[in-house]
Design brief:
Elements lengths: L6 H10 L2 H6 L5 E3 L2 E4 L11 E4 L4 E4 L5 E2 L1 H9 L3 H11 L13 H23 L1 H9 L4 H6 L3 E3 L5 H6 L6 H6 L3 E3 L7 E3 L4 E7 L5 E8 L7 E3 L15 H7 L6 E4 L2 H9 L5 E3 L7 H8 L4 E7 L2 H14 L8 E7 L5 H8 L1 H9 L2 E2 H11 L6 H17 L4 H14 L3 H7 L20 H11 L11 H6 L3 H15 L5 H6 L7 H10 L5 H33 L4 H15 L1
Parallel strand pairs: 12-13, 12-14, 14-15
Antiparallel strand pairs: 1-2, 2-3, 3-4, 4-5, 6-9, 7-8, 9-10, 10-11, 15-16
Helix pairs in contact: 3-4, 11-14, 14-15, 17-18, 18-19, 20-22, 20-24, 20-25, 25-26
């Protein structure tokens, strides 16, 4: 999960982060004995069941089961990707991701600084050019939305930004790499501004950092819209304009509307519809959809109602099919011909536009409509053709309830039984249900040791060394315990949350979380005694097994000299 971020750096980030302070800035906590409590931010509840432990640097909700450390909380609460959560916590701790850590490495930081400086310049220029302000007013945009989205203006001159930021020679390569300036062809080292006489739309990443720009020309000229080129920071196939602002405007996003242009997003926000995003001059990609579904369960595509809009919707449909896991929704909103969200929301108003969103055509209906339009269901040949045309779509959809229901509907349209359709498709069984979270009621001795070490990492120092070979040769849980002991001994500074981070996405993580929740507090002397007792019990259990095996062999076929000596030693230890 950590990719190329070194594990010791991740450990340092977790160790330097105060989980209580991190959560309290987002969810007000109340002191409750040694711990802190609040109403859970991850589900609705009337009484607090969300607990944060200062000692363990671990949070847990007894209502919904959510639990984790600082990185896990930031990923869940801010809906960040792992590397972004680590980078955010590292920044707060005064650390910088090492080179190769997929974050703001020194070069990336320099590029980000240049882009932020350019954004400030463009904002300043907007205030100094009345014609740019008048253009925004004529489009219906007010100052609040312009400020929220950081709109700016690129002056008409060939090198206004270059003169402002590029006076120092070392800055010019950064301006070129970010695409803010362009090299003149066949003119030596001549450079000029990429954006000139354009309204500027800063494009922000999930952390709100400017990573690129879009520009809309004020007067006549082509292209009407211009985007930053692909750079180490900016990839059009992954970024969505307005997603950062939508997340800032609403803690929960019941749905997200995908539109085509910057002005569509801005005008919808001007009318109080703050959960719209735009692709950046490209069709919706799988990466776009995965990002959207991290923030909402319902995505609504908005297209013109003409032929071009329907074709664009068909492409979005094909992209969406592999992402249709159970619990997700995709819908299609077709606008009247000649209208776009910008014009329609100004004409109809917020409530009427929201009604259209609520009545958007579900993906299943759009798919079935397209399939029906291509065949004649009144003939056997047409029904067979329906199933043949549906086969690629069905195979693209993940196994689950949605796919099964769609198969049933197609079977009905074709006039056949669902079971017959399944046999035709090879009788594929639905995917196995997700494994339930383990619930610890009566922990085994191995699990008790796990819980002690997780709650109090110092307990790893009290494990009897004679137990380690037994664990190495043991079952899966024994080997998990061995890995936990080795991590705790190698990094004695880690908190409980730090230990858990070492097992992110490991099969043991759900069990470790449950054991940490179950583990009661106790004095250090009591913990040391319990560790020794459990180790002695496990070693005695192993010895009894070896004695039984040797005695059984002695009764059947006899023992050689080495085995007799081994049995003697085992019996003498048991008697001591």
């Amino acid at each position: 999960m950590s990719g190329s971020i070194p594990q010791d750096f991740i450990d340092e980030v977790v160790a330097r982060t105060d989980l209580v302070a991190l959560i309290d800035r987002r969810v007000p906590l109340k002191k409750a004995g040694k711990d802190h409590t609040a109403r859970c931010p991850f589900h609705d509840e009337k009484s607090p069941s969300f607990t944060v432990s200062t000692d363990k640097q671990f949070y847990h909700c007894f209502g919904c089961g959510a639990h984790g450390n600082a990185i896990g909380f930031l990923m869940a609460f801010e809906r960040l990707e792992f590397r972004d959560a680590v980078a955010e916590l590292a920044s707060q701790a005064g650390l910088e991701l090492p080179a190769g850590g997929e974050g703001p490495v020194p070069r990336h930081k320099e590029l980000l600084d240049v882009l932020e400086a350019a954004a400030r310049f463009y904002r300043q220029q907007l205030g100094e050019h009345p014609k740019a302000i008048d253009y925004l007013k004529q489009r219906g945009l007010g100052g609040t939305i312009a400020a929220t989205f950081g709109l700016g203006y690129a002056p008409a001159g060939w090198d206004s930004l270059l003169q402002h930021l590029g006076r120092a020679p070392e800055h010019r390569p950064l301006l070129l790499e970010t695409g803010l300036v362009v090299a003149r062809e066949g003119n030596g080292n001549g450079l000029y501004d990429r954006f000139r006489d354009r309204i500027i739309f800063p494009i922000r990443d999930s952390r709100g950092r400017v990573i690129g720009f879009g520009g809309r020309i004020l007067d006549q000229g082509q292209p009407k819209y211009l985007n930053s080129p692909e750079t180490p920071l900016f990839h059009k196939g992954r970024e969505l304009y307005g997603l950062y602002e939508a997340r800032q405007a609403q803690r929960e996003l019941p749905w997200i509307l995908v539109v085509e242009g910057y002005m569509d997003v801005l005008m919808l926000a001007e009318h109080g519809i703050t959960n719209a995003v735009a692709t950046l001059g490209t069709a919706t990609t799988p990466d776009h959809l995965r990002r959207l579904f991290r923030h909402t369960a319902r995505v609504v595509f908005c297209f013109d109602g003409d032929r071009a809009g329907r074709d664009a919707a068909a492409r979005a449909l094909q992209t969406s099919l592999p992402e249709m896991h159970d619990g997700r929704e995709v819908a299609f909103l077709f606008l009247p011909e000649g209208e776009d969200p910008d014009s329609l929301v100004r004409k109809e108003g917020r409530d009427a536009f929201l009604m259209r969103v609520g009545q958007a055509q579900p993906l299943s209906d759009f798919l079935l409509q397209r399939l029906r339009d291509q065949v004649d269901l009144h003939t056997l040949e047409g029904r067979a053709r329906l199933l043949e045309r549906a086969r690629p779509a069905l195979r693209a959809i993940p196994q689950g309830a949605f796919r099964a229901l769609l198969e049933q509907t197609l079977a009905r349209l074709a006039g056949m039984e669902h079971a017959d359709l399944m046999r035709m498709e090879g009788g594929k069984a639905p995917s196995s249900p997700p494994r339930p979270r383990p619930t610890v009621v009566h922990p085994t001795p191995v699990q008790r040791l796990m819980g002690l070490i997780l709650a109090h990492p110092v307990a790893a120092q009290w494990i009897d060394p004679s137990l380690l070979p037994l664990l190495k040769a043991g079952d899966t849980e024994a080997q998990w315990l061995l890995a936990l002991i080795e991590l705790a001994r190698a990094s004695p500074h880690l908190s409980s949350g730090g230990l858990l981070e070492g097992f992110r996405e490991h099969p043991a993580e759900p069990l470790f979380g449950q054991l940490l929740i179950w583990q009661p507090d106790r004095a250090e002397e009591g913990m040391a005694r319990e560790c020794r007792d459990i180790c002695r019990h496990l070693l005695q259990q192993q010895a009894r097994g070896q004695i039984d095996t040797l005695l059984e062999k002695a009764a059947v076929q006899g023992l050689d000299a080495a085995e007799k000596e081994q049995l003697r030693l085992l019996l003498s230890r048991r008697g001591s």
